[in-house]
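Bug: token stream looks shifted between consecutive jobs. Job 1:
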Amino acid sequence: MSTLETSAMALAADTLRCLAADEVQAANSGHPGVALGLADVAAVLWLRHLKVCGADPAWADRDRFVMSGGHASSLLYALLHLSGFGVSLEDLRRFRQLGSRTPGHPEFGHTPGVETTTGPLGQGIAAGVGMALAERMLAARFNAPGRTLVDHRTWVTCGDGDLEEGVSHEACSLAGALGLERLILLYDSNGITIEGATGLALADDARRRFEGYGWRVLEVDGHDLAAIDRVLTEAEAPCGRPTLVICATVIGKGSPGKAGSAASHGAPLGAEELRRTKQALGFDPDQAFVVPQAVRALFGARAEAMRALRDGEVARAEAILAADPGLRARWEAHRDQPLPGDLGALMPDWGGKAISTRSASGKVLNALAPVLPWLVGGSADLAPSNMTALAGLGDVARGDYAGRNLHFGIREFAMAAVMGGMAVHGGFRVYGGTFFVFCDYLRPALRVAALMGVPTVYVLTHDSFYVGEDGPTHEPVEQLPALRAMPNVCDIRPADATETAVAWEVALRRRGGPTCLMLSRQNLPVLDRAALAPAEGLARGAYTLWQRDPSATPEAILIASGSEVALALEVAQTSARNLRVVSMPSWALFEEQPADYREAVLPRAVARRLAVEAAIPFGWERYVGAEGAVLGMTGWGASGPAAVLAEHFGFTRANLAARLEALLED
């Protein structure tokens, strides 16, 4: 970088500093320190290395940029503004205001150029791993000698807080094992967190830590513009490994009174300190949101260069696809992920033999996978138990990304966050499995997926105390109501193999949020659909499975989900009373139905209702009402054979029948 270029870059970095500080000051809320400290690295990256196009934020082969420390969003918004992403100065002025395009942390789908929702520290790193993995998997499918359709990198910025969070270990360990060389992590190493110096609680040697993961590690003075340019060029060079660039920076760089201190981290600089900062940087202290013309020109030239690059690459890709209709069809299938009109015709024939819903799920996956090439997934080292493996379709491994079975290792949190990164990247529909009780480990990433509205699928098996001998540490009781409390998550606990098949169809057709399938370890009878309502009723969340006399108002309604549906049906069918059995696999889907449908299934005129579910009954009051009751768990599970535990906890025909009679006689 020449002296003239360095001078122009320095002005660009200082402009970013002032814009970011102005945003925080205008909001009287935010985190200016990281934005000021990281501005030099950001300026060099965006002006000389990052392959993005503000005129086409959705360009398929763009580089992905993730700010894992999302509290530094003011810097990202300043970059998006200068780079032509349609973020205006007025948007910057409305930083952190209700309804603005510049919320406090980056939100996917809300601001053009934001690749994923970040904020919960560490998750942006894991999402970046997912993006880099998706890039390698697409490249393995569509690139060939003389033909390149996929050629981009994933750049992630992170700070000390991101690396302290445990999910960073999970994700970076996985990235090293997979050799994701297109992943570049820029570590803003400023030695400061909210409480003070990082030495209060952090003594890690980042270099040795990442070398232990199998990463390439580079280091640079994060304020030496020419050195930053050189190290980013080196980071781009292929090496068969992901790269960590340790950028030594000063938090609050440019602020005379707060640089290098925790005081600049989580609060505005203050009016007077902001004036002093602008003076120190050579800007007019009495003006806000100023962009020198030279900086506008610099970013404008980069934007034009990126537009030309984008146009050329898109034209070349179109020529490749036009010459090969089969390749185009596969490319568009991965992009659009279409489903056959009648998925049901592809489903297995269940016969009459009892089967666990986890096994049924595995059979469904293997029936669908051959016609859904974009469907990929795996498990947190539990594929033989979760039944998530796709037979004969290969493994994704270091240097070989053409397979469809992902091995996340024993890393539930990273698995879910990586899945989210793959989902926002595009090209694949991804599922991941673990035991239901361990959804507590992945819950923070499930929450971000729900916030973003991405269609990841979680295969959560061993769904109740029927796990048996493993005992209460492996037996979920409170997880089901906790999951149902999360907005935009579709909960499905199917009753048998036929409902499991429909559950997968619902999950694959759902595009606006994650779906969780809670599946049994124990075998369940395959319900006789010739005598009962069709399993397609699952798609509406709840449906009348059986009633002795459908023409009359039922005396009571038994409501159940999952493994308890067969128990409720058995009790109802052996009673002389006119009872209705409702299978209710999904509260979320049921609440989406019109009021008249919900009334038809659970008529207000029938106040005597008994719900049965092998979980804490919290929340069932909305469906059983004041005169109803719930047979559920009242505490933890226990260790013992499943049949013994069913007797112990009262999930028997005799106990349920007695509870029902007591309700009817009350």
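Job 2, same session, no restart:
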Amino acid sequence: MKKSFFGGRISSSNLVYALLDIVAVNLAYGVALWFRFDCNLSVLLNGAAQAYFFAWAKFTPIYSVLCLLTFFGFRFHKTLWTYAGYSDLIRIVLSSVITVMLHVVFITLLFLRMPISYYLIGAVLQTIAVILIHFFRRFIGYSKDLRTAHEGEAHVLLIGAGAAGQIILSDMHHSGRIPDRVACIIDDDPKKWGKVLDDVPIIGGRERILEVVERYDITKIYVAIPSASAQDRRDILNICKETDCELKILPGVYQFLCDEVTTESLREVSMEDLLGREPIRTDMEELLGFLSGKVVLVTGAGGSIGSELARQIAAYGPKLLVLFDIYENSLYEVQNQLQDDFPELNFVALIGSVRDSRRIYEVFETYRPEVVYHAAAHKHVPLMEVSPNEAIKNNVFGTYKTAYAAMVHGCKRFVLISSDKAVNPVNVMGASKRLCEMIVQAFDAKIKAGRAEEIPQLFTHRTPEMKKRNDIDFSAISTEFVAVRFGNVLGSNGSVVPLFRKMIEKGGPIKVTHPDIIRYFMTIPEAVSLVLLAGTYAKGGEIFVLDMGSPVKIDTLARNMIRLSGLRPDIDIEIEYTGLRPGEKLYEEKLMEEEGLERTDNDLIHIGKPIPFDPDSFFRDLRRLMEIAYANRESIRDSIMELVSTYHPNK
């Protein structure tokens, strides 16, 4: 290493290229002079042009020094030419312009005025020569990188030639952290097709993905389209998962706006990415006004939905958050998480069953919740088919007892968590959820009619501490009861997604009940957002329904999960069809045929118009159903059918 005039250090390779620069710039003007005199060397050496030749030759050492000083001034010796780009090209051109001007001035003043063509041709040849010399270094470095990286490297297909894609590509090429090589780029903008981005060709739109994967031996696909719509993302990912490639995606536009776009910000594609719709956006201000400073009760707080409800409600600053669940282990986990994430939160975790009238009354008497989110329920369809009386006791009468306690203790809003399985139910779990919806509608109808005192107390046991009917001021009751209906939740307890993951980890097979079975899916945060929104939109008696997009075939879901794990369905992981389980049907519905839809302020949330029924006869039949359920009679399904006309159990 040698030290330069400017204090930097020059490598031996830079000295070689400096020598090449000197030869190139002087030779460029020599060739220009040769061109000027018709490529006749004898005219230059011995003829009329001899004076021009000697002027050029004498000026050569002076011009060499001038060029070296200029190139040093433009920091050629500190440039990493292996990664040269557009800005480096501009610097070469500017340095050439300066040296050309110096050449014109000094050779004219010191020696001789040269022909105009000499100056013009020499300037062009010099610029081209210097560009070729230094960008040849880039080509050599790039070729060397390819030779050393080819062993064991992955061929990557980059989807997205926008700003995020450019950053990902540059990071891969220049950071040295990623050994993989981007073979080509896909972008849906036809204006970009046929062009090159950082030496990588942009070869077409999404319709060429499968062709490109095979043609270029692609093993990884990086999706860098943060601003694309959810539908476009889903469509592109659906094409990608038809390949055997490893898939990674840049999460969203937030990372791009916050300058968080690197190869490390790419993540594995999740099932949520394949839903194909934008997530529900809640109105933060509306929820703050509704929940801030209030006492809020969440039943079933240890479950997937209940625990997410607790987390989201905690962020809105309730006066007190009451968590209620019968299973102590899951509630303990939620308690610890809230203590860590919300150290200022005032909350209490209570163990108990919604079936226990005395315990429910005690909770409401002690804490006086103003808003109740009732998520406690038995939800496992096959298990409830085997134990139908337990489903009715817990789901139906647990809801009834909680709703009644809420009503008589001054609760302002009661939100029931329902299910799309309540629509035309074929299983006991779905029918029990429909009965819960009817309870909510019947309570609301009686309260709105000013006849809350006609709602019966359906308790199997009571204590002297419980309110007697004579002690209740029914005229002051104003509780609003609503229900929220949605489909299956990705990642929840009992969901097929964690079940399929365990099967894949074990090497298969994945057990699917039927190749044609379909379900609606949503994420846990979306489901909870809908529940919270229902609390703000409610006027009483509504059944809120989420537009969950297109239904998903469970067979397709299983195959997608296998592919997203880097494996091949039916080859690496077998899919086994076991037949529909008790109480299952091929498809789920969001609304009954009798129900219509009303819009809300959120385009993805609708209100199902209540199906009319007589609350008085419903309450009488419900009392008989309670007696049958607690007597554990096998005829429970017949009694359910009398109350739920749309219930048609699978035979």
